[in-house]
Amino acid sequence: MNKSHLLHLIKDIYQDLLPSLQIESVNPRDPIKVKYLPQPWGLLGKGNYAAVVDHPDYPDCVVKIYAPGRPGYEEEVEVYRCLGSHPAFSECLYAADGFLVLKRLDGTTLYDCMHLGLPIPQQVIQDIDEALDYARSRGLHPHDVHGRNVMMHQGKGLVVDISDFLHQEACSKWNDLKKAYYWLYRPVLRPLRLRVPYSALNMLRKSYRLATSLKTFCCQLVLKLSYFKYLKQ
């Protein structure tokens, strides 16, 4: 996108989009709610903290807007600054006032691939692995990488959401997804070409989140009990 086109987009954001847009985050664990989006802007997706919209006059860009009161905006801007340019990631073209203008990445999330029954080649998983290694080489810490945050486009893997890449705590979501891919998807689901209903996918997502929370709780409990046992010695 040339500079003039980008300036026109920014003008439309301030004049047409932001004054009318109504979004809110009711629960930080659930996707935000978009109560009103002015035409001709379209909703591409929504996460727990932000919504992603586009405009038909600017097909090469998307706009990511954070819900009021939700954190992460400054961190995401910093992540894009650190990443620079890489084919598996988007690029930040402009950022201000709680929104980012990003280079558009086309594709289908792995979550939607499961729903649509689209085959996911191994190259997609390998591309995402390489992209995450690149991010680590830039001093970042890939975090919260799951089926809704990665995409497939023409047999290539893309990473869509990098907003949590400054978080240094361990995150096993991508490794867990890879295990499911190699142990369950490739030998069982892919040959059957099953289309998984969104209701089932959402149930799996919530079950995984609960299991992860229980695992974390149990680990913390064991550490506390070990600490108390040590004090009594």
TrEMBL record:
Annotated signal sequence range: none
Keywords: Kinase, Serine/threonine-protein kinase, Transferase
SUPFAM superfamilies per UniProt: Protein kinase-like (PK-like)
Protein name listed in UniProt: Serine/threonine protein kinase
GO molecular function terms listed in the Swiss-Prot or TrEMBL record: protein serine/threonine kinase activity
InterPro entries reported for this sequence: Kinase-like_dom_sf, Meiotic_Drive_Suppr_Kinase
Source organism of this protein record: Atlanticothrix silvestris CENA357
